[in-house]
Design brief:
Layout (H helix, E strand, L loop, with lengths): L1 H25 L13 E5 L4 H12 L3 E6 L2 H15 L4 E5 L5 H14 L5 E4 L17 H24 L6 E6 L20 H22 L5 E7 L9 H7 L4 H11 L3 H13 L1 H5 L4 E3 L2 E3 L8 H14 L4 H4 L2
Parallel strand pairs: 1-2, 1-4, 2-3, 4-5, 5-6, 6-7
Antiparallel strand pairs: 7-8
Helix pairs in contact: 1-8, 2-3, 2-9, 4-5, 5-6, 6-11, 7-8
Length: 327
């Protein structure tokens, strides 16, 4: 038995090494020189990890940057880092808890009241742990943070995105997906029940891509485009609790492997930056990008009936009325 247990970290190491080397050799860098002076961008989860890198890049291009997260200390620390690294003082931190629908509504109302334009919305925030937790809104924690919260936020901010976009320069929505969407599945009768972390995460990312494709259909001729991005395997803390539980004896070693061999946050951020800035991505709608180029998601993501059902069920759960959905 001990021989099997000892074999597990070796298998994980070899697998991580293969994935890591492949990613390092195939990762693309966004080469856009586009400036964002006079434009406003919003990055959820923009105070750490990939989100911090995305927000810093936008600030360096001259944008007014709004970063959002549910933790004050992390939020103000992230804001300080962005200002220091970009020398752009026009950075705003706002509290947003995607696991709380009331917080999402309050945040969106504040943005609509205090911001006169929104050129780019990056739904980057995500979690990979606490899949067995149910929020006070009655939703699976991972599903609500990774999908339902972003679904509601996006719909509520659409009027401002539509107002800002033009035919020559549409506003852009970038949703963070994952390769794990390929193992995700949807069962509307059970999708908000307690789940193990990785299945819940995979299901949430499948929802992200289906939502992206359905929203794209509804945004035709609106001067707003929406696309999803797969950043690849990035060495962040998103699954820290998960692998700590699974490999409690080898948590430190596994953490080192993930952070060393997988993409660094700056590398993982490149495709989201590309989707938000590049001319070709601005002409795409409802697509998935990986390594700064368009790719095809799982076949199930092309199921239009499933995407429509997901939209309708999601709208019911977050209590959106028809007037808001048709805005």
């Amino acid at each position: 038995m001990w021989s099997v247990i000892l074999l597990i970290p070796q298998i994980v190491f070899v697998g991580a090494l293969i994935v890591g080397l492949y990613q390092k050799n195939t990762n693309s860098i966004c080469k856009s020189k586009k400036r964002l002076d006079g434009k406003t961008v919003l990055v959820t989860g923009g105070t750490s990890g990939m989100g911090l890198e995305i927000a810093t890049d936008f600030a360096q291009r001259g944008a007014k940057v709004i970063v959002a997260c549910p933790f004050e200390d992390e939020g103000y620390s992230g804001k300080k880092k962005i200002i220091e690294n970009s020398e752009n003082e026009n950075v705003i931190f706002k509290l947003l808890d995607l696991s709380n629908l009331a917080s999402v509504r309050e945040f969106a109302a504040d943005v609509l009241k205090t911001v006169d334009r929104l050129d780019i919305l990056v739904n980057n925030a995500g979690v990979g742990s606490d899949g067995d937790r149910i929020t006070k809104d009655g939703m699976n924690f991972i599903m609500q943070v990774n999908y339902f919260g972003s679904f509601l936020l996006t719909i509520l901010l659409l009027p401002l995105l539509k107002k800002t976009g033009t035919s020559d320069e549409p506003s852009r929505i970038v949703n963070t997906a994952s390769v794990l969407h390929r193992i995700g599945c949807l069962n509307f009768n059970h999708w908000n029940e307690p789940q193990k972390n990785f299945p819940a995460y995979a299901n949430s990312k499948l929802c992200v891509i289906l939502f992206t494709r359905e929203l794209a259909k509804r945004l035709e001729n609106s001067n707003v485009v929406v696309n999803a991005v797969d950043p690849g395997a990035v060495g962040t803390d998103i699954f820290k609790a998960s692998y700590a539980n699974i490999f409690s004896s080898f948590g430190v070693v596994l953490s080192f492997i993930l952070f060393t061999l997988f993409k660094q946050p700056w590398e993982g951020a490149q495709t989201a930056i590309y989707a938000a800035l590049s001319r070709s991505a601005g002409k795409a709608n409802g697509e998935l990008f990986k390594n700064c180029k368009m790719t095809r998601p799982s076949r199930k993501c092309y199921n239009e009936k499933l995407a429509k059902n997901l939209w309708e069920e999601s709208a019911k759960l977050v209590k959106l009325n028809e007037s808001t959905l048709s805005t």
